[in-house]
Design brief:
The protein contains 21 helices and 9 strands. The protein has about 500 residues and is mainly α. The protein folds into 2 domains: about 190 residues, Orthogonal Bundle (Fumarase C, Chain B, domain 1), CATH 1.10.275; about 260 residues, Fumarase/aspartase (Central domain) (Fumarase C, Chain A, domain 2, Up-down Bundle), CATH 1.20.200.10. A 3-stranded antiparallel β-sheet has the order 4-6-7. Strand 1, helix 1 and strand 2 form a beta-alpha-beta unit. Helix 1 crosses helix 9 and helix 9 packs across helix 19.
């Protein structure tokens, strides 16, 4: 499916498609027209000799330095070269593709005063799979993602490094192998390429896409554990959610009942047991998973607004005859929501670890200690829970908000910054840890279900159990469980377990 870049319709699924599915991209005619009108206005103002920040002046503290017309191209090149100060490991090619798409979409809003050819060049690089090597570290998230976006722009002008046909090489080498010509920057175009929050927003949206998988997997893993522990479904009765009408709570309760099915043999086996109520990690899944779903939805809404925003400085309003310096490049709206999403996912994964502990604890599960068939000789899932606890603790550190910090930069002219790109990057670590934690819960939950045989689950629980068992057999004795965890994590990432469940019970809500 071809993605049309129009400055107004970028969303979660499109970012994923461009980033991970290499969807082709093209600039819409309407966006091209808006950009052309904006550029004509800038050129008319240049001809009148007006002083305009970033067009014919220096940058930051040098904004009072007037640049002669003969030096404007050199000014833009110097800006890109000097700002290419990113360090550390690079973003992956899919992450860089997503960044490029959002940078193009932002410019396509038509408020930067640059030529449509600049967006054409970004899209040409994307369609030819010439992907800039963009270091992950170096942005403070205000005045835009200056350092990483400069590395993107550096590749466009034929300098720096790119990924081409899976290999990392100089942009000059890659372009020499193709018919793609480097971009020659005109007035304001270098500045417009690097002003904005597209790095933190793109990485945030990619992580939010993975988080959407996780809020579904949390319900699936929780349902499996509930069956493995012979837990009660009574806490998911819809009349409960009706009197506390948070939308995520009702959605989660409906998901759980759908995954569990109407009444499995397992649930019937304990209808008249003496247990009054389950532990919080089972009973409160609608509240906690539901709150995470609400946070995720709010985050996606904020990120999609940002993806379709004009974040340059100055902004050009041709029809209003205005060129306005502003602060739309400040990343705080994105930073706040990414920090909050990391907190929500950390809490949801923490509850998963609580359920693993219940599974391996015989006083809570009435199952063999550590789910080992021959305990003592075999340790079973003892260290599965320990590893999960380690990841939960790590997520607590990663969930400290980046956005509460600020360090003045640029000779104190840029005196408050968002650190939003740090928030986006550490959110990715939280998501990766959560994927592993849910993989561990699925490993222990399916082991518990095997130990309950001949009692059998039904509906979505059985579908998930059967899918896991295709690659991960019941552990009759100890083995290297790290391999099983990685296998299940890969199944989560490929949506195999989720698809198996939804094929059986229908779509789940988020």
């Amino acid at each position: 499916m071809k993605i049309v870049v129009d400055g107004k319709s970028a969303n979660l699924d499109k970012v994923w498609s461009v980033g991970h599915l290499n969807a082709p991209v093209e600039l819409s005619p309407e966006a091209r027209e808006k950009m052309s009108l904006s550029r004509k206005y800038i050129e008319s103002r240049i001809q009148t000799g007006d002083t305009m920040y970033g067009v014919n002046t220096g940058f930051g503290l040098f904004s009072d330095v007037r640049i002669s017309p003969s030096q404007i191209r050199e000014l833009q090149q110097n800006l890109i070269r000097s700002h290419s100060c990113g360090v550390g490991d690079p973003f992956t090619p899919p992450q860089s593709r997503a960044i490029m798409y959002l940078r193009a979409n932002c410019l396509a809003t038509g408020h930067s005063g640059i030529r449509p050819e600049v967006v054409d060049k970004i899209l040409e690089f994307l369609n030819c799979d010439i992907i800039p090597v963009i270091p992950q570290k170096g942005s403070v998230g205000a005045s835009g993602d200056l350092a990483p976006l400069s590395h993107l722009a550096l590749a466009l002008i034929g300098e720096g490094e790119v990924w081409y046909k899976g290999k990392r090489e100089s942009a000059e080498q890659a372009l020499s192998k193709t018919n793609v010509q480097p971009l020659v920057l005109e007035a304001k175009e270098g500045l417009s390429l690097i002003n904005g929050c597209q790095v933190m927003t793109a990485i945030g949206l990619l992580n939010a896409y993975r988080a959407r998988q996780l809020v579904w997997m949390a319900d699936i893993a929780g349902a499996i554990t509930l069956e493995g522990l012979k837990g009660s479904r009574r806490a998911f009765d819809p009349i409960i959610s009706a009197v506390r009408p948070h939308p995520g709570e009702a959605k989660t309760a409906r998901n759980l009942l759908k995954i569990l099915g109407d009444s499995s043999v397992i649930s019937k086996s304990h209808e008249n047991c003496s247990r009054v109520q389950d532990a919080y990690s089972l009973r409160c899944m609608p509240a906690v998973h539901g709150a995470a779903k609400k946070t995720l939805r709010d985050s996606v809404e904020t990120l999609e607004i940002e993806a379709n925003s004009s974040t340059d400085n100055p902004l050009v309003f041709a029809q209003e005859n205005k060129i306005l310096s502003c602060g739309n490049f400040h990343g705080e709206p994105v930073a706040f929501t990414l920090d909050f999403l990391a907190i929500a996912l950390s809490a949801m994964a923490s509850m998963s670890e609580c359920r693993i502990e219940k599974l391996i604890n015989p006083s809570m599960s009435n199952l063999p200690p550590f789910l080992a068939s021959d305990g003592g000789l075999h340790s079973g899932h003892m260290i599965v829970q320990v590893a999960a606890a380690s990841l939960v603790s790590e997520n607590k550190i990663l969930s400290h908000p980046a956005s509460v910090d600020s360090i003045p930069t640029s000779a104190d002219k840029e005196d408050h910054v968002s650190m939003g790109t740090i928030a986006a990057r550490k959110l990715g670590e939280v998501v990766s840890n959560a994927e592993l934690i849910f993989a561990m819960e699925l490993l222990s939950g399916t082991q518990a279900l095997d130990l309950l045989k001949p009692l059998e689950p039904e509906a979505g629980v059985k579908a998930a159990f059967d899918k896991v068992r295709e690659l991960v057999p019941f552990a009759k004795k100890d083995r290297v469980f790290a391999k099983d965890i990685e296998t299940i994590k890969n199944m989560i990432e490929r949506d195999e377990i989720l698809q198996s469940v939804t094929k059986t019970v229908g779509e789940l809500e988020w």
